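G., the chain you wanted modeled:
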Amino acid sequence: MRDLIAYATTALEAASLAIIMLGTLLASVLFLTRLRRVGLETSYRQYRADLGRGILIGLELLIAADILKSLVIDPTLNGLAVLAGIVVVRTFLSFSLDVEINGHWPWDDTRLSQHGNRQADVSET
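Predicted structure as tokens:
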């Protein structure tokens, strides 16, 4: 079982690296194609959001790999403490990227969608 988990964590780490690299490449290509159509400012904002999405997905996979590695391969208190630190740092990075991409706090999603629904209801009447 340990060998299977070791291969799985390696696969998750490799997938994370590939997604971050592919996300960066794709975001860069989209930036260059958008640049002529919508200008630098809009293209740059979208570029940052696209880069953030790729990094965010990669971080999620790295967290999954770290959880598997720490809980199955190295289930010691020291290993769990390292896992907790890694998860805290990566969660903070994920949270920061989410705010950067969306331009508002995650808990504002509900309020913004409710506000949008109220505006749609008002405009229909």
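The mean pLDDT is 81.

Shout if anything looks off.
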